[in-house]
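Methods — Computational structure assignment.
A single polypeptide chain was analysed. Its primary sequence is given first, followed by the predicted tertiary structure written as structure tokens.
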Amino acid sequence: MAVRVRILASDQPLLEGEADFLTFRGADGDLGVLPQHAPLLTWLKPGEVMVRQGEGERYVFLEGGFLEVLPNLVTVVAERGLLSTAIGLEAAEEDLRGSQERATRDPESPAAAHLLEVAQARVAAAQLQRRRERD
């Protein structure tokens, strides 16, 4: 049995299909979802979503968003996201350096803190993707 999955960013659908298992970075920690999961609505922290179908796995990086789980449907709505295979490690590291500088200049800024969190998560996702490609 599988659950239908829709991962949408404001400008495009990122992934649609079925999954046997999914993982997310939820508001209160990591979250796993199986078919027939109890209904749930939560916000997501920046990070990767893993979508497993059979033996295959796909990864999507989200800058945050909202997750709605119903027994037969999982929907994610995010402002921005991309397939993890599209993240360039060098560009992600450069964004991280810029975010660190901004957070240092304005340590009380919630926007700077959020950009830093997103940049750190993007670098981590890019590093994981590189490892997956090598294995």
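Note: The radius of gyration is 15 Å.
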